[in-house]
């Protein structure tokens, strides 16, 4: 592990990245709440299960795709199942695990959530940046995601 100290610019970038992310999350969560819709974590799980289609996803796959803590994800899936937004199906591969599949009700919730979520993304990013800046930001964040200086 390196013990190098970050530059002042790196500290400023980190602080601003976390602050903007937090502000956008809070704003979008509030907009969803104002519309009587569930929180973003529900959307994150539902969209991944929806994308998987009839194949469904195992819980660890959802965890890998959403980055939600495992203990929170387990409870969240229980809640989504209780609300009839997802269903569990025994995995035919090994019979031990479950596949998580989205229900029609879950798909409807996604459809109601997206306009609010999408609007928050639009306002939070495209409301402040020019199109070429949005592209540049996406490219820079991809570099941070992959750890590549290319």
UniProtKB/TrEMBL annotation:
GO terms for biological process: response to stress. Pfam families: MarR_2. InterPro entries: HTH_MarR-typ, MarR/SlyA-like, WH-like_DNA-bd_sf, WH_DNA-bd_sf. Residues 10-146 form the HTH marR-type domain. This is MarR family transcriptional regulator. Gene3D superfamilies: Winged helix-like DNA-binding domain superfamily/Winged helix DNA-binding domain. One of its GO terms (molecular function) is DNA-binding transcription factor activity.
């Amino acid at each position: 592990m390196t013990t190098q100290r970050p530059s002042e610019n790196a500290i400023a970038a980190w602080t601003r990245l976390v602050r903007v992310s937090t502000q956008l999350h809070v704003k979008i969560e509030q907009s969803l709440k104002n519309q009587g819709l569930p929180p973003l974590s529900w959307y994150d799980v539902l969209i991944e299960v929806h994308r998987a289609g009839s194949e469904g996803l195992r819980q660890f796959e959802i965890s890998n795709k959403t980055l939600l803590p495992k203990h929170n994800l387990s409870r969240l899936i229980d809640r989504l199942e209780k609300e009839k937004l997802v269903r569990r199906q025994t995995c035919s591969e090994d019979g031990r695990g479950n596949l998580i599949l989205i229900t029609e009700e879950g798909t409807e919730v996604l459809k109601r959530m997206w306009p609010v979520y999408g609007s928050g993304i639009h306002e939070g990013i495209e409301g402040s940046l020019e199109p070429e800046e949005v592209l540049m930001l996406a490219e820079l964040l991809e570099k941070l995601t992959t750890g590549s200086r290319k």
